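Teaching assistant here, posting this on the class forum so everyone can see the example we discussed in section. The complex has two components, and the goal was to see what a joint structure prediction looks like when all of them are supplied at once.
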Amino acid sequence: MATPVERPTAVRSAARTTTGPGPAAQRRRAPRLRLARRNQGWLYAAPTALFVTVFFLIPVLLVAQMSLSDWGLFAGNRGFNAPDNYTDAVGQRLFWPAVWFTVKYTIITTIILIGVALGLALMVQEVALWNSFLRTAFLVPSALGLASASLLFYALYAPEGGPFARLLSGLGIGDGTVSFLGSPNAALWSTVAVIVWRFAGFYMLLLLVGLQGISSDVYEAARVDGANRWQIFVNVTLPLLKPSLALCTILCITGSLLAFDQFYILTRGGPDNSTITIVLLVYNIAFGGRNDLGVAAALSLIVLLALIVINVVQFTALRGRED
Amino acid sequence: MSTMSRPLLATSSRRVLTGALALLFLFPLVWAAVASVAPQPGTAQVDGWGLGNYARLAGYQAGLTQYLINSVLISGMTVIFTLVVSLLGGYAFALFNFPGKNLLFLATLAILMVPYATLLIPLYVLLNSIGLQNSLVGLALVLTMFQLPFATFMMRISFEAVPRELAESAYVDGCGTFTALLRILVPAVKPGLITVGLFAFLAAWNDFIAPLILITDSDKVPLPLAVANIRGQVMGVVDYGATEAGVVILALPCVVLFLILQRHYVRGFMSGALKG
């Protein structure tokens, strides 16, 4: 975060390279220039400030007010009712099942996704034409939207005539109709597969940045000391890759805790409400039947708070280990 | 020779394995493209190969063209708003000093910390109260706000990477700060602008939950929502053919842009990987 210009030096060095008026004239003009530019800074930042205020700061205050009010989707604000929305949100029949499912989904996704991404990154890290083809192939899915990827897999998972169903019945598993989204467990793992397909390349890229930061001298030294490949991986690569792995873990945990699109499209929270995530629950309370914005606001503030706590814990844990 | 052939063998077997893995990642996309024109019972394309699924999509409710126009308008506005706001903002943060600068920058980054759903509930109420309910402009403004942390950060570091002498010499030569921005600095930060524009387009084109909440008129929904809706609404039976055709239309611009601008895409992630 560089603060603006030590201006005298900059002006002087600029003067040397330009054919404008002589250096003395510029030194005289510099203070007035600086004053004008202070005001102009605000002018250029004004659109950003406007956006941040209207579409971020005011909504954050509004959601807090909503969480303390009886606020219907169509009826609007019907006055203060704290803390009813919070007790109502936590008392929802589906609250604890949703929390538990979201946590389970997050743990499974994070472990598999980072494992796969690390494998891919190690596979393609050397600079070569073939590897750049592989990198592109792994990255293409991450250009798709999560909703598009979910719709694509929804068709792939078609129980009759879908390619996966036909493949499995070809292998003698199932009798031609395989339900990928029909049972709670199958629905969970089918969704995890979509996410791994969509995001593995993205996290591979982040890990590649980390791998490129490791100097080849370190590997060379380990090899001279007689370390084999596995020893090098465990004792050299993994420790030096820790910052990148930490970044991936934080992004993946945060993203998975807020999962919505994939479950809304693939399962709608079913079968039997077994795949309702916490954000899906927020959506259902607000717009999917109950139409209670106050309770949804309270629940979403609980989510925000939990997310902040989780991220603070992650940051301190990771920093503590670095020391 | 024997010392040559062993690495050669290892290389080719490695190529087979890694190539198979690459195909596994490409398979769903290729399959969707093929299946969307292939004959399949229970779809609009039962006999022989053809564009029946696309035709059904074209005739679905408001029509494919309408949904495409909606998506193009939303994405176009989001890209323009994001580029203008982050270009000016990045310029201000990188080259000017003004009171409240760090606070504003932190507030912009803080958008990343708040979950999408937490903001969309009050935004639904807010847009209603300022007459932007159910409007593509309102949706584009909201999507722009979600882009700002990444875009502002990206443009700030792009401006900071430009040698200061370039701007300073323009000011000294009598250029106003705005003329200097347009004539001298915009060309210098062009790669940053392309990255920001690409990400804004991909995000807006693909966004699902924001239009789901903010757009209630079924004629105004963008393509992802329309494709998701068509599944269950053809006589209660899922039309997989129309879904496949929809996915192809959704994915095509993203994949093409990605392949053309891959360098910028990678750059976006390298620069701190701000986007979660």
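For the discussion questions: DSSP finds 13 helices and no strands in chain B. Chain B has one domain: 52-270. Think about how each of these relates to the inputs above.
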